Amino acid sequence: MKIEKDKVVMIDYKLTGEDGSVIDTSDGREPLAYLHGNGGLIPGLESELEGKAVEDSFSVSIPPEKAYGTRDESLLYVIPRKEFEMSDQLKVGMQFQAQNESGIQLLTISKIDGDDITVDGNHPLAGETLNFDVTVKEIRDATAEELSHGHVHGPGGHQH
Ligand code: ZN
Predict the structure, then answer these.
(1) What is the pLDDT of residue 3?
(2) Residue 16's domain is classified under what CATH number?
(3) What is the H or E stretch that residue 45 is in?
(4) Is residue 25 part of a domain?
């Protein structure tokens, strides 16, 4: 069986950044399960996995445009400290969610200058070239229920 749209795929992976540091890995955990062709992974990784078979291994370097996007400096906002809950405990690197017109946005505090708090709405990996080492562990047909939900159920997937 080869990887194609609507297959359930399990992969072991290691993600390293431009400086070679490990950002994320499935090492020591269950493989990652995803439903191929449904936007579950970044586009550059899904296109690389297309057509692969179990036990195939590869390394790929994915530019920001095919990963989490380029950085958008218009997503930096300066917010007065008093607008925050627990305003006396703010630290650079803290993340929180905010509701906006397009849904839930993840914001990261990128700078604190007195009572001016700069938050960054870019994905933490925006602008990064991502290096993946991937091994395909398992490929199976998706169930009708998984297809209707658009994600994988069971180990490595959604538990509900
Ligand atoms: Zn579901």
Answers:
(1) 98
(2) 3.10.50.40
(3) helix 43-49
(4) yes
DSSP assignment of 104-141, as one string?
A: EEEEEEEEEETTEEEEE-S-TTTT--EEEEEEEEEEEE
CB atoms within 10 A of CB 20: 7
Under the banding of pLDDT at 50, 70 and 90, the label for residue 124 is: confident
The model's pTM: 0.81
pLDDT at 76: 94
Residue 49 located in a structural domain: yes
Least confident of 16-20, 97-101, 134-138: 97-101
Phi, psi of 150 (to 5 degrees): 80, 15
Domain range enclosing 107 = 73-120
**Pick from 134, 128, 133, 122: which is nearest to 65 by CA?**
128
Which residues crowd ion ligand 1, with CB under 5 Å?
A: 149, 158
Q: Which amino acid is at 2?
A: K
Total domain count, the chain = 2
15 and 54 together in one domain: yes
Tell me, in angstroms, the distance from the centre of ligand 1 to residue 44's CA. 24
CA of 148 to the centre of ligand 1 (A): 8
